[in-house]
């Protein structure tokens, strides 16, 4: 393809120059180099790919709690905080006073993990959970921290963790998207959180449903956002012929001009949208589920219906071969009204997540499904606005279950008041490196060459938390 130079007229593009250089040997060399750069250069970019090492997990279900849950009220037991309740924090923040958790913690399961009474159902699955209590991240601002949690960078547009996973492993079901995000929050990064950035567009996440502004996580509608390219004026056979023709024209264009990965990715997305029309609607339809299953997930109950539907849908998608499923739940930004609002959020997810873990375990899928729960950061142990907590990026808790991590295990710790991670510190880069490792991917080898540089999810950082591996 040529571009117009305002002074000298038409000049060849870089691709054309390589074509013409030494009878085209420059382009041949470029293709050879590109083919060695990574799996994206395969004839079929979504074909299943061999991991770098034996994988413990085949898929990920990421339960993203947007707004930052309070760790000292949920999964980080701090008995000293109760003793220090009402005391001022010397040298930390002027006038700030520590606030003990209003809720009790109980040792759960055979492992005796301390979990808040806000999670009675999830507490029954404690022996499957690996609590990561030494988490920390770079910034205490929602948008930047959320983007970093998803992409590894809060400064630049980078591919999401789900896109990197699909790029590295491919998909096992060509009739479904390999990466799905259910009801993602509308703010704090938006589409960037499930985008592909400079990776080919075919690796980006497919959004199904959307979160209603001001009603974080209450909609739970997985019927909206499903791609539909059906043509009411054409039969399925006729539309198939149209797409085949489009594919033929695109391949001819690629043969003549070496193609455009982004354009080819978009066309692949349309091809996928056509194929999945026969399979995806059935996975999203919960009307044929057993009553006992719906009740177990909390579907139909006012507090748990929305998130219960999402968890059950994620279970369907994972079983059908979707590689990475993310479920969004907002409303965790509790600067005030903590005693009223936090229990509401916890009730919404407690029963559905417990049912998801139990369902995966009963079916044998938990062994190779990595379930990840967490927000972008935590909250302060001191009070804000009398009955709230401020942002805290220096120490917080996430957890994992299944997929090769130790169950009934606690890793890392914050100080006695829950202010800062002091043991088993895990940055977002370490977190990403560990997730990729469990999927059989070496975070230092999973790279993509863009603008003359090899990029990776963890940039130049990241260490695998080997202590949590089963």
Task: Describe the structure in your own words.
The structure is a single chain. α11 runs parallel beside α12. The N terminus is likely disordered. This protein has three domains: 36 residues, no CATH class; 361 residues, Alkaline Phosphatase, subunit A, CATH 3.40.720; 48 residues. β17 and β18 form a beta hairpin. The strands form six sheets. The protein has an eight-stranded mixed beta sheet with strand order 8-7-9-3-10-13-6-14, with helices on both faces. A two-stranded antiparallel ribbon has the order 1-2. A two-stranded antiparallel sheet has the order 4-5. The protein is of the alpha/beta class. The chain is globular and about 70 Å long.
Q: Got a strand count?
A: 18
In helices, the fraction of residues equals 25-40%
CATH architecture of the largest domain: 3-Layer(aba) Sandwich
State the CATH class of the largest domain: Alpha Beta
The largest sheet has its strands arranged as: 8-7-9-3-10-13-6-14
The shape is: globular
End-to-end distance: 52 Å
Assembly type of the chains comes to: single chain
Biggest pleated sheet: 8 strands, mixed
Mean of residue pLDDT values: 86
Number of domains: 3
